[in-house]
Amino acid sequence: MEKTGKTLVIIPARGGSKGIPRKNIRLLLGKPLIAYAIELALKCRLVDKVIVSTDDEEIADIAKQYGAEVPFMRPEELATDKSPIIETLRHTVRYYEEKGVFFDNILLLEPTNPLREVKDVEETVKKINEPDVDTVVTVRKYEIDFSDVMVLQEDEFIKPFLNVDKLTYRRQDEKNLVLLNAAAYAVKRDVLMDPRVKMLNPYGENSFLRTKAVLMPAERSIEIDSIEDLNYTEYILKQGGFKNESRDSKKKPKKI
Fold it and tell me: Buried (b) or exposed (e) across 65-86, using 16+ Cβ within 10 A?
């Protein structure tokens, strides 16, 4: 497989977590959740270094046990619930560049997507190496018929969410709708460090980003945010794979 730009994998893992206490090191089939991300990244032939950014000594120790580097402890101001993850990525890039180490691409792998596979990550890296791409995100198919979506008003009447008659809208386009699944985000170094960029997703003021997508199946797109997600993912793994797509969550991942 051809390897082009030098790629740094950053796995962010704060010690605090609102939904599941100590989520990043909760056991999933007897293995810490963060270990799935580390082992996956180390198997990827297109990356050059795998590091964990954490503010927690226990997480740091576990990350090292599974083969990741933990070159520093994340500053407290970058480890709060409101700290933008993009600032954690920039902090890591600056850390290495001050030591004379430079990377072309940054790949973000959250610990909360244990069902992604090496091929998902390698496809993400391949696309970020294309010359006309700023960021790459992983997505899954999203099935919805907007003509059936209604707004419930305070007077208990409903009205269409979209006035499809006044929009350039074709029902057949719905089959091309996709939803971010938070499994992987890649960004070119210069794009990441551009102060105009507030997040890696092409939302709002970041709509100028040239973002490509890597399509993943729904069965590998589960993001663990709750005990229910954790228990269900463990059930899937015990069964040897995802057999029923009906449980797949349609919630949007947090903006990165």
Answer: ebebebeeebeeebbeeebebb
